[in-house]
Write a structure and sequence with these properties.
Length: 66
């Protein structure tokens, strides 16, 4: 498997994880004020998931344009 193909597979998994984290954040916001203490934790997890996804997408783009 090529680097680009492996990266595409990883991006698919990361995209699913980021989407799940986004939904966790959305669900938490709908439950407010219940569990308001979890906002920083869930927001940080969501941020990290999307940051990693963006980094991998940038790496794939660089591989494809090289």
């Amino acid at each position: 498997m090529t680097d680009a193909a492996a990266l595409k597979d990883e991006i698919k998994k990361l995209n699913a994880r980021a989407t799940a984290k986004k939904m966790d954040l959305h669900d938490l916001s709908e439950e407010l004020p219940v569990s308001w203490e979890r906002i920083p934790e869930v927001a940080q997890e969501t941020y990290e998931a999307f940051k990693l996804l963006a980094e991998k997408r940038a790496r794939l783009k660089a591989l494809e344009t090289a």
